[in-house]
Specification:
single chain, mainly alpha, 6 helices, 3 strands, flat
């Protein structure tokens, strides 16, 4: 899958409505180690299937038959969701290969110096990404607010919808920053410590 398509799919996943504790049915409950912002309700069956198939999400709850319960996903921004288990114990996504080296396990452990270099570089890129994405999103939100004041009819409805998506993206910005940071660091061929990036993704 092309990187642009991955980013667009991630944005759609992050724009889904957050799942609330009361959305979990019966003895189910939100995973303790999960970021609440990455637990999402989804009504689109086709999108749910695609998100799971590419490793972007894990299904936590799905209606069976006439059950009126919420369909809930856990989003994994690094596209490293646990593989779907089948009845024979094999992974349904066993043939899926990560598009980035970040999804692969390092063949050896880093030294303390290498890990420090990796963390320092990660923080540097994270700061750059935070500034870029934050500014772009704030500018777009300001533009949409201005558009709303000068349009009506279908154009007004479209502007409101886009503003809603932009505000949701702002709330989910932390996850998007992490994805972009990992991507840029993993693509830096001049930085040998990137082979240990998978250790930070856990």
């Amino acid at each position: 899958m092309a990187e642009r398509d991955r980013q667009m799919l991630l944005e759609r996943a992050l724009a889904l409505a957050d799942a609330r504790p009361e959305d979990f049915h019966g003895d189910r409950s939100p995973p303790r180690d999960a970021d609440p912002r990455l637990l999402k309700r989804i009504d689109d069956t086709a999108l749910r299937t695609k998100l799971i198939a590419v490793g972007l999400a894990e299904g936590l709850q799905s209606p069976k038959g006439p059950q009126k319960i919420a369909s809930i996903l856990r989003v994994y921004p690094a596209f490293d969701a646990p593989p779907v288990s089948t009845n024979n114990g094999r992974a349904a996504r066993g043939k899926r290969r990560p598009a980035r080296n970040a999804g692969q396990r390092p063949s050896r452990l880093p030294t303390v110096v290498q890990l420090e270099r990796l963390l320092l570089r990660y923080r540097q890129i994270e700061a750059e990404v935070t500034g870029q994405l934050g500014v772009q999103l704030d500018e777009r939100i300001a533009q949409l607010k201005g558009d709303i004041a000068g349009v009506d009819g279908e154009a007004l409805e479209a502007a409101y919808r886009e503003l809603g998506v932009a505000l949701e993206r702002k709330r989910a910005l932390a996850a998007q920053i992490a994805v972009e940071t990992f991507g840029r660091l993993n693509d830096d061929r001049e930085f040998p410590e990137r082979e240990f990036l998978r250790l930070l993704a856990r």
